[in-house]
Amino acid sequence: MCDYSLHLVASRPAKVGDKLVTTKFKNSLTTGFAAVEEPTVAVCLLPGTELAFETEVECEHVFKVFRSQKLIGQKVARFRQINLEEKNVHHDALEFPDGQVVLLTRLDKGQHATVLQLPASPRATNELEQQRRGSIVT
Q: CA angle at residue 74 from 30 to 41, to 5 degrees?
């Protein structure tokens, strides 16, 4: 799925083995994933999709006034959506093995990742998301 602010951007679903890069799309307020060979097309991930990054993930500091970067210290993540009950806010996020959850829009641009695995089935994905809705988000 792609976040609400990417509805005006060309998109396609993710495939296993896709080489992705984090990017800020033209005419959008959001950072998301694009295929390396298709930089203007958003690649939409299903909740439960697993990614491996080339280097440890970095994102903007939660307090933007510092204009500093935060090193997540992880290279693998699982895509999920958060705060689904809230309209017109970003929902697309990555969950890391240590429990950190980071909105995609906070990721630094230009980070490369590979799609390792898609979720087993839409039903399993829905059940997983329902179980996690009560999680604390950073």
A: 30
Regarding beta strands 58-60 and 76-81, do their DSSP bridges make them parallel or antiparallel, or are they unpaired? unpaired
Give pTM, 2 decimals.
0.79
Q: Is 100 left (phi over 0), alpha (psi -120 to 50) or beta?
A: beta
**3-class SS letters over 86-97:** CCCCCCEEEECC
Element (H, E) at 129: helix 122-132
Token pair 């689904």 in the structure block, residue: 84
pLDDT digits (tens, 9 = 90+) for 22-73: 999 887 778 899 999 999 999 999 999 999 999 999 988 665 555 556 788 8
Q: Tell how strand 38-44 and strand 11-13 pair up.
A: parallel
Q: Which amino acid is at 120?
A: A
Q: For 90-126, b where at least 16 C-beta lie within 10 A, e where not — what string?
A: bbbbbbbeeebbbbbbbbeeebebebeebbeeeeebe
DSSP-derived letter for residue 107 is: B
